[in-house]
Design brief:
The complex is a heterodimer. Chain A is built from five helices and five strands. By secondary structure, chain A is of the alpha/beta class. The longest helix of chain A has 16 residues. Chain B is α+β, with helices and mostly antiparallel strands. Chain B is 31% helix and 29% strand. The two termini of chain B are 18 Å apart. Classes of the chains: A alpha/beta, B alpha+beta.
Amino acid sequence: MSNAKRNEAERLHVGVAYRPDGVLLITLAGYLDAGTFDVAEKVLEKALDEGHCRMIVNMSKLTYMSSAGVGVLLAAINRARSLGGEIALLKPTPAVADVFALIGMSKFCKFADTMEQAEGIFRAHPS
Amino acid sequence: MSVERKRLVVPRSVHCLAKLRSDVRRFLRLHPMRWRDESRVVLAVDEAVSNIIIHNNEKSGLPPIEVELRRVDGAVEAIIRDTGSKFNPRKKWPPRLTRDRKHLGLYIISKAADEVRYRFIAEGYNELTLVKHTKKR
């Protein structure tokens, strides 16, 4: 891996936690752009391949997102829904929320300001 | 009318985007502006340069991308110059969120910038100008 690529990988951190209720918690921190989106894409695709179609994506530490990141999330949301699931987007930072608003995703996606709200999305739509 | 300028030279690699955003932000913060305006200028420049790197990199040995930032009275301009294929930055259709991921970047540029101007210069240069008005008109 080149130094530049290694630096970029360090700028996006992806955490995965398996919750007792079966909802997968994925945490994105750092930048989600054209240089890092593939890291998040692999994690989300792997989770969906394993049958995890109910996920909470914690975006509270994601400081920047471009269209590359939006594309990854859109693909994952559409695939999760096709499997009867849902992806809740937890607490996007103001800069990231502004990107969602620019594209008109505010009504398309399920957003939550708190973990309790995110959990409520899955109580309302059990698999 | 005073004009402040900064010229950035960006290697054609997606792994240089974080530094580009940092440099653009540093220029914008010389004169504080609304965070949303700053955020949208950074986003529009990042999208434009990403688009060039991803879609206009078919020939090896192309020179780096040039980004010129200008602060003019009541506005910030980002002029992005590169050598490569002609493209149409004015595709403004809303993306079909349930179907595809194509053209999201161009759509974001059209929404994040207040004006988008494009010239294909005879010598084979693309010049894309993004304008953000920083004063309410």
